[in-house]
Specification:
heterotetramer, A mainly alpha, B alpha+beta, C mainly alpha, D mainly alpha, A: Four Helix Bundle (Hemerythrin (Met), subunit A), elongated, D: mainly alpha, Cytochrome C Oxidase, Chain A
Chain lengths: 223, 322, 114, 533
């Protein structure tokens, strides 16, 4: 049964001995959760690499429809957001919650910019008839001057949409979580002794960044 | 030891295993016999020991003194290493036979076998298509497997061989039948409604009979049209869902004495079973559904898979079912 | 698992959070930006060293990932057990990858590779 | 022990609502218990239906078809498998007994994340409800393995079922995560890793598997869903994909899942054997480490489900080799239990009968597992009734026996009441005999070549199938006795003392049932768990 008491101004659940005990337990839980994220995305990576080596030309054709400049900008945006996320934790650690709030706000904003760029990438492809899997539309592609050259091109875009889509969902979830800790931060719930939720959300956000760091060369560059 | 496994093998093959149709079946059974004996001994030690201890050290009073034994490294090493050695032996033994199973002989007679929900079709080099798989005795036969729809698995229990048929790719297996006779071919990979009915015969005949059979099959074009229809009815596995000699329904309606009747259909009204209705039902099974049968119909469409002359022969055959 | 076992009942000795100086974050951020530019430069000139291109692209990505993990995610200062846990994820992935590859690239239509 | 200051966890807070919002690990365990019991009943009835259908071949004149057609059979088969795997055996021991006793055994007040614990129950119920809902939408017929491309083509509500399995997977991850942190961080003072009871060790190893394997199932199921909705083509040969890759992904989870099912059972057996022979466990360290060993090796063996799937020979041989290595820690456990009986003081109360029954059945399940791991032999046995018999010997003869045994063992602790020994033993007799009558003939059926998932069979298999079906009725009767025992125990069982069996582990050193806070005074541990000196 979980009740809690205050130790050094921090609420500590009764089954933990002290603040640090609670902190380190929570942190381990967060890391274990991150492991599941890595393994889930990993399945997609494994599939991608295998089919890439089975059908290199088809994957090259698919990658040629991707604009690396968009991916490049998005990489910078996401790296910057990771940086501001780290600052969000830092400013809480050193007791400057106002600055932390700003850092978190910028992080959410970067997430939004990332999604907007993704939106343009997606709609551009839809416009050209490039849909995932069997929905891909060769006639529309031909009309736009890009006749499809490999029969199973849909599979490349199956991977493309699944990977970037699942990543996009994580960005959205991350933005929601950051907004949540930002509001709690504005309410003054965090202090240098207690900021575990921000740190947890931060680790999640860095995972999102980490995955993109690999997705970018995988989808855009290694055609 | 060798003699003993041989004896075991014989005893087992007669009681617990299907007939041994190949040399590989015998070597598999040898290994299996060894495994059964070893398993039996280990179970006897474990279960026998358990029962013995349970009886001997049965609680006599609430204050029984028990021995305080925490561990014994020598014993524990013993029962780690001994099983490990046994495991390695059976692994290596299994590998040797497995390797043999997976190494396709170069001189084999090649037969293309295609799985389709829910029948196997064999196709020979000279173009003969057959539901029964007929092979000559004492000759290496290689089966090249393909599937038209979902996973199937080509399984001949008497030959101790099995291989999945995968759509979009060829897989293969080989055997050298040493026994004349008929053997079952099962589908061992779940494939839907009539998975359990996807059974065909594998006939092992003498080389002479095989050649005769192959020639007569290839002369099918000269047969009367309804006779040809009967052949196609078999090769297309229509019989796995439709009865032809009695009016009982299987998966689909019986075709016995069907021609010329009126059938009420779920789409409304009745339909007269004539040439065009049969044609439509073969090419587009979802067009009309006779009352009392599932909708959508589980029957696959044969659009583009039958030539006009094959279709005509089938219809002629169905007409003749009286 | 061995590493985790040494961790019982420590009263948070390792758990005291470490505060990374702002300077470090700036350096790491700058390095990540620089490496991203490097990726692009390498990509533009990849015609000159084509077979190596994927290795370079992923090599740079791996360095970036390391920077993010070590400093942004604080793994450098975290408890060793958490590092082991996170590494387990990548290890599991490597196993999945390795065996799938072993199967798919040793399939042959005829005979056997063994 | 003395009188407790607080009320038992059952009465601490009244009202049904307090149960559904409780963060107490013991109450959440009871929530799981009720849910799992229900699903077990449903899955069990389906099993009886399947066996009834197989009583005679469909051509048989006097016994007609029980199920309407092949489709109906395949659907019942799928739900039987999916329910028993995802909703009964996987959550069975960890979520019920693990939730209740893991914190107690290590002297903790609760699991590390009580809220997450409650959430995992709700997530589980959400997934389970969705899975049950498919039954009323369009019954799925893919088998619990969802093999492509059949699962892509079939016209049933696969997407919904896949989402359900994904959600239940999340629940399993949350439970595992919680237990890992609990074991790492919440042990009482003096409770070193190597003083933990073996049940806790087993649950801990299981938790590692749950966290590491389940995410891959998650992505596999998501991709299958995408395959049906968009036809992304990764597993669909028509679009250039590889159905065998699906099997790799699927079994990467589902083989470790087999150990998610059996490891906790082994943990239960270690507890039962020591308690009811009043003797310290033989080779504590070896058993503890073998749990971790089995968990670790289980990640490298999944391809033994695929020897004839079109996997390459090299992969098959590698997987076969590594599979042999799993046999070693399993053998160690079996022999160590056997050695524990030596010079003990053995009573044959119901839990011990289940433990001995486990050893009997698991020995057979184990050796047949080795037989199946031998490549050449498996070519013949793969996908036959031999496999069906083997995994039922492990899953039912192993896990279910352990669940029942563990449940009777801890019944006094969980509910503060004693069960009726006579009906519990009667239940065991029927289940044990019925089980062997049902499943032993299936080994022979498999050896004779009868493939699994068959709605109908050729006449030569009839005799053995008949015996098997009769056996299933005995099992059914056995479980009815079990149900009666539980209900009788709950309604009119005698009050249980704190430690009726004279067990040494920590959960017995507190009230029956425990108070909300588990222990009146935080325990300090000074010795190992099985000091029967």
């Amino acid at each position: 049964m979980s009740t809690s008491r205050l130790i050094n101004g921090v609420e500590v659940a009764s089954h933990f001995r002290d603040v640090n005990h609670q902190y380190s337990s929570n942190k381990e839980g967060i890391w274990l959760f991150m492991v599941t994220e890595i393994l889930m995305f990993g399945g997609l990576f494994v599939g991608y690499i295998i089919f890439h080596s089975l059908y290199p030309e088809m994957f090259a054709e698919g990658a040629s429809y991707l604009d690396w400049k968009m991916g490049f900008v998005n990489t910078l945006v996401l790296i910057f957001s990771s940086f501001t996320m780290a600052l969000g934790i830092y400013y809480n650690q050193v007791g400057q919650p106002k600055r932390a709030t700003w850092a978190l706000a910028i992080t959410v904003l970067c997430g939004a910019i990332f999604m907007v760029i993704k939106y343009f990438e997606y709609t551009h492809k839809f416009h050209m008839g490039i849909f995932p899997g069997r929905l891909i539309n060769p006639e529309m592609m031909a009309e736009h001057g890009h006749p499809m050259q490999h029969a199973n091109l849909g599979m490349y875009f199956g991977f493309y949409y699944c990977m970037s889509g699942l990543h996009g969902i994580h960005v959205l979830i991350g933005m929601g979580l950051i907004t949540w800790v930002m509001i709690r931060n504005i309410k003054g719930e965090f202090n240098p002794k207690y900021y575990t939720p921000i740190e947890g959300v931060g680790i999640f956000w860095h995972i999102v960044d980490l995955i993109w760091i690999f997705l970018f060369p995988l989808l855009y560059l290694v055609g | 030891m060798a003699i003993w496994t041989l004896l075991m093998n014989k005893a087992m093959a007669d009681t617990f295993m299907p007939a041994q149709g190949t040399e590989i079946a015998k070597s598999v059974d040898n290994l299996y016999a060894f495994l059964v004996v070893v398993s039996f001994i280990s179970c006897a030690i474990l279960i026998g020991g358990m029962i013995y201890f349970a009886m001997k050290y049965k609680r006599k009073s609430a204050n029984d003194k028990t021995a305080y034994i925490t561990h014994d490294t020598r014993l524990e090493v013993l029962w780690s290493v001994v099983p490990l050695i046994i495991f390695m032996v059976v692994f290596a033994w299994g590998w040797v036979i497995f390797h043999d199973m997976r190494s396709m002989p170069a001189d084999a007679l090649e037969i293309q076998v295609t799985g389709k929900q829910w029948a196997w079709t064999a196709e020979y080099k000279n173009g003969v298509k057959s539901v029964d798989i007929v092979v000559p005795v004492n000759r290496n036969v290689k089966i090249v497997l393909a599937s038209e729809d979902v996973l199937h698995s080509f399984y001949v229990p008497s030959f101790r061989i099995k291989q999945d048929a995968i759509p979009g790719r060829y897989t293969n297996l080989w055997f050298n039948a040493t026994k004349l006779g008929e053997f079952h071919v099962f589908c061992a990979e779940y494939c839907g409604t009539t998975h359990s009915g996807m059974i065909t015969r594998l006939k092992v005949v003498s080389q002479e009979d095989f050649d005769k059979w192959l020639t007569s099959e290839s002369e099918i074009g000269t047969l009367p049209i309804a006779e040809r229809g009967r052949k196609y009815f078999q090769t297309r596995a229509c019989a796995s869902c439709h009865n032809v000699d009695n009016p009982a329904a299987k998966v689909g309606p019986s075709l016995y004495q069907l021609f010329g009747k009126d059938e009420s259909v779920q789409e409304g009204g009745t339909v007269k079973v004539d040439e065009n209705y049969i044609r439509e039902s073969i090419l587009d099974p979802q067009a009309k559904h006779v009352t009392g049968f599932p909708k959508p119909s589980p029957m696959p469409s044969f659009q583009g898979q039958l030539s006009e002359s094959e279709l005509a022969a089938l219809i002629e055959y169905i007409k003749d079912l009286k | 698992m061995a590493n985790n076992q040494s961790h019982h009942n420590d009263h948070g000795a390792h758990a005291e959070p470490h505060v990374t100086p702002l300077r470090t974050y700036l350096n790491v951020g700058a390095a990540l930006f620089a490496l991203t530019f490097l990726t692009i430069i390498a990509h533009v000139f990849k015609a000159h060293y084509l077979p190596l291109a994927p290795f370079i692209a992923f090599g740079i990505a791996a360095i970036k990932a390391f920077l993010v993990m070590a400093w942004f995610m604080h793994l450098k200062y975290d408890e060793p057990s958490n590092r082991v846990i996170f590494a387990l994820g990548f290890f599991g992935l490597a196993v999945l990858f390795a065996f799938c590859v072993i199967d798919i690239f040793t399939r042959v239509a005829q005979g056997t590779v063994l | 022990m003395g009188h407790s200051s607080g009320k038992s966890y059952i009465y601490e807070e009244p009202g049904l609502k307090s149960w559904f919002t409780s963060l107490d690990h013991k109450r959440i365990a009871i929530l799981y218990f009720v849910a799992v019991m229900f699903f077990f009943l449903v899955g069990g009835i389906m099993a009886l239906l399947l066996r009834l259908e197989l009583f005679a071949p469909n051509t048989s004149a006097n016994v007609g078809q029980i199920l309407k057609n092949g489709d109906a059979y395949n659907q019942v088969l799928t739900y039987h498998g999916a329910i028993m795997v995802f909703m009964v055996i996987i959550p069975g021991i960890p979520a019920i007994l693990g939730n209740f006793f893991l914190p107690l055994q290590i002297g903790a007040k609760d699991v590390a994340f009580p809220r997450l614990n409650l959430m995992s129950w709700y997530v589980f119920m959400l997934g389970a409800s969705l899975a049950v809902a498919t039954f009323f939408a369009s019954k799925i017929d893919t088998g619990w393995t969802f093999y492509t491309p059949y699962s892509i083509r079939t016209g049933s509500s696969v997407v919904m079922m896949v989402v359900a399995a994904f959600i239940m997977g999340m629940s399993s991850i949350l439970t595992g995560l919680n237990f890992i942190v609990t074991v790492h961080r919440l042990r009482a003072p003096g409770m070193t890793m190597f003083r933990m009871p073996l049940f806790t060790w087993a649950i801990y190893s299981t938790a590692v598997l749950q966290v590491l394997a389940t995410p891959v199932l998650g992505i596999t199921l998501l991709l299958l869903m995408m395959e049906r909705v968009f036809g992304v083509g990764i597993f669909d040969p028509k679009l250039g994909g590889d159905p065998v890759l699906f099997q790799h992904f699927f079994w990467f989870y589902s083989h470790p899942a087999v150990y998610i099912m059996i490891l906790p059972a082994m943990g239960v057996i270690s507890e039962l054997i020591t308690t009811y022979s009043k003797k310290t466990i033989f080779g504590y360290t070896a058993i503890a480490l073998s749990s971790i060993g089995i968990a670790a090796v289980s990640f490298f063996v999944w391809g033994h489900h695929m020897f004839v799937s079109g996997q390459s020979e090299l992969a098959g041989v590698l997987f076969s080799f590594i599979t042999m290595l799993v046999g070693v820690p399993t053998a160690i456990k079996m022999f160590n239990w056997l050695a524990t009986l030596y010079k003990g003081s053995i009573t044959f109360s119901a839990p011990m009968l289940y433990a001995l029954g486990f050893m009997f059945l698991f020995a057979i399940g184990g050796v047949t597992g080795i037989i199946l791991a031998v490549t050449a032999v498996d070519v013949h046995f793969h996908d036959t009734y031999f496999v069906v018999a083997h995994f039922h010997y492990v899953m039912v003869g192993g896990t279910l026996m352990a669940i029942m045994g563990g449940f009777y063992h801890w019944f006094p602790k969980m509910f503060g009441k004693m069960y009726n020994e006579l009906t519990a033993q009667l239940s065991w007799v029927f289940i044990f005999i019925g089980f062997n009558v049902t499943f032993f003939p299936q080994f022979i059926l498999g050896a004779k070549g009868m493939p699994r998932r068959y709605f109908d069979y050729i006449p030569e298999y009839e005799q053995l199938n008949k015996i098997s079906t009769v056996g299933s009725w005995l099992i059914g009767i056995g479980f009815l006795f079990g149900l009666y025992t539980i209900i009788r125990g709950l309604t009119s069982g005698a009050k249980a003392p704190p430690n009726p069996w004279g067990s040494k582990t920590l959960e017995w050193q507190t009230e029956s049932p425990p108070t909300m806070h588990n222990f009146d005074h935080d325990p300090i541990v000074t010795a190992g768990p099985y000091e029967y000196k």
